[in-house]
Design goal:
The chain is an alpha/beta fold. The chain is built from 15 helices and eleven strands.
């Protein structure tokens, strides 16, 4: 392929994507395919001869798109958002076009330095303490990781290394392997599965502590867990606090957990994967009160901040904690030699190679500005509140817990089975996509504003479909109850007649 064909191929691909988003409402949010459909459509072996780019796009539109779940459909309300914007798509294109691998400064100076710039920009917008920023006088700074899962594991590994170093410095006779076997990590039972997996991958016991009635991990619970484990000869090492839990978007009180971690020399990592984006709006920063106690903080710009996956923004109070844990030297990997505070990011992450991810974050922040990003967040929250109002207006439904950010959880009053059946039926019809969660032992449905394109009319369309399905289910349930009641009445009469005889 030459540059002329590249221009034609690229322009045609952009036209397909632009048309896809312009007409996305014409599609069902879920595809009508069976498992194995694409496996059967594709050839078993790679093409021996080159194909025209037109054939590639033909297969994309005829085979790939029909099997795609449309995450940016206005009626996609499952999980949490995954970010997208035209600005981010272009930023990704520029990154892929340059094709650099920025493992150290000399490998691509702009790749490293733009990441420093954008992480400073974003950290300031979020209202993070100055010591977390690269522009501070201290050793803190930010890095773009691949995901919140990765950031949680990076934090755990750094915390493990730091704890072992500290204990051996205090007592050189200690065996590092003995210390490792005693280290314990803690989080809420409402945590994302990736937090629990970090314990598995990092070979550290991860205790899932019971949250309170509102889904929050309280300070007293954490303190008691520390005390119990210390009494058993174990060593508290790492705590993951959740700002916006996966199930109900609950916020752990950092102002309670932080002082306990600090008193016990335990690393506090803040997982704000989804809700962290809202902190660019000053009115929501109350939810991260106590963040000054954190050793690391992570939020996914690729969830709610219009940046395409992958772009997980992680800040640490002391970059040397990461360097000490991950520094492996080779003669061909010289570190940057300068008096300026410029990190070699290969020491701040698990992989060696890294993409030029900051280009898409930079493209979005330049194109939207802080004002545009705040407007986006506030609009989503406003739409969620509108949906909650619609649900609360129908006496058959319960909204619980109270809506949080762009998430609304609800259920039918008449029982778990009806709520499950309603969700199953809606999913089968593919017009609206939601997933379930549990709250106080009850089955609930999670409804989240996910798409950049969702409007008030789209919200009302989703509610119309939900309400229609509830009408059918509740009518059927009423009919079944009526039949049961009639049968019971007949049986009661029959028993009475038998007794009379």
């Amino acid at each position: 392929m030459d540059s002329k064909q590249f221009r034609e191929f690229g322009k045609a691909a952009i036209d397909i994507l632009a048309d896809y988003y312009d007409h996305i409402r014409d599609r069902n949010v879920l595809p009508s395919v069976e498992p194995g459909q694409l496996l059967r459509q594709m050839s078993e072996d790679a093409p021996e001869k080159p194909c025209d780019w037109q054939d590639v796009l033909k297969d994309f539109t005829e085979m790939i798109l029909p099997g795609t779940t449309h995450w940016h459909h206005p009626q996609f309300h499952a999980y949490y958002p995954t970010g997208i914007s035209y600005a981010s798509i272009v930023g990704n294109l520029l990154s892929d076009g340059l094709g650099v691998i920025g493992f150290n400064w000399i490998a691509s100076p702009a790749c490293t330095e733009l990441e420093v710039v954008t992480m400073n920009w974003l950290g300031k917008l979020l209202g993070l303490p100055e010591e977390f920023l690269n522009c501070s006088s201290g050793p803190g700074g930010g890095i773009i990781q691949g995901s919140a899962s990765e950031s949680t594991l990076v934090g755990l590994l750094a915390a493990k290394d730091k704890m072992i170093r500290r204990l051996i410095k205090e007592n050189p006779d200690l065996d590092p392997d003995d210390i490792r076997n005693k280290l314990v990590a803690y989080t809420s039972d409402q945590c994302n599965s990736s937090v629990e997996k970090a314990g598995v991958l990092g070979s550290m016991k991860m205790r899932l502590l019971k949250s309170d009635a509102y889904g929050k991990l309280r300070g007293d619970t954490l303190k008691k867990a520390f005390e119990d484990d210390v009494a058993e000869g174990l060593i508290p090492c790492y705590v993951v606090a959740n700002l916006g839990t996966t199930g109900t978007c609950a916020f752990d009180p950092l102002y309670e957990l932080g002082p306990i971690c600090k008193e016990n020399n335990v690393w506090l990592h803040v997982d704000a994967a989804y809700a962290g984006s809202a902190f660019i709006c000053p009115e929501y920063r109350e939810f991260m009160r106590g963040v000054e106690y954190a050793d690391s903080f992570d939020m996914n710009a690729h969830k709610w901040l219009l940046v395409n996956f992958d772009c997980s923004a992680m800040w640490v109070r002391d970059g040397y904690d990461l360097i000490n844990a991950f520094d492996v030297q080779r003669i061909y990997l010289d570190d940057v030699k300068t008096s300026l505070k410029i990190p070699d990011y290969r020491h701040w992450q698990m992989p060696l190679g890294r993409r030029f991810r900051s280009l898409k974050l930079w493209s979005v922040m330049k194109t939207y500005g802080a004002e545009g990003l705040r407007s986006h967040i506030r609009n989503h929250i406003s739409l969620a509140q509108h949906f909650a109002k619609l649900v609360k207006s129908d006496e058959r439904f319960v909204v619980e817990p109270e809506p949080s950010m762009g998430l609304v959880c609800f259920r039918l009053k008449d029982g778990e089975n009806l709520t499950k059946k309603m969700l199953e039926n809606l999913t089968a019809k593919k017009k609206v996509f939601m997933v379930a969660a549990s709250y106080r032992g009850r089955y609930i449905i999670r409804w989240v504003i996910c798409s950049l394109f969702t409007t008030k009319e789209d919200v009302e369309f989703s509610w119309k479909n939900i309400k229609h399905e509830a009408d059918i289910i509740c009518l059927n349930n009423k009919s079944v109850k009526s039949k049961i009641s009639n049968i019971e009445s007949i049986e009661s009469v029959s028993i009475s007649e038998e007794k009379t005889k």
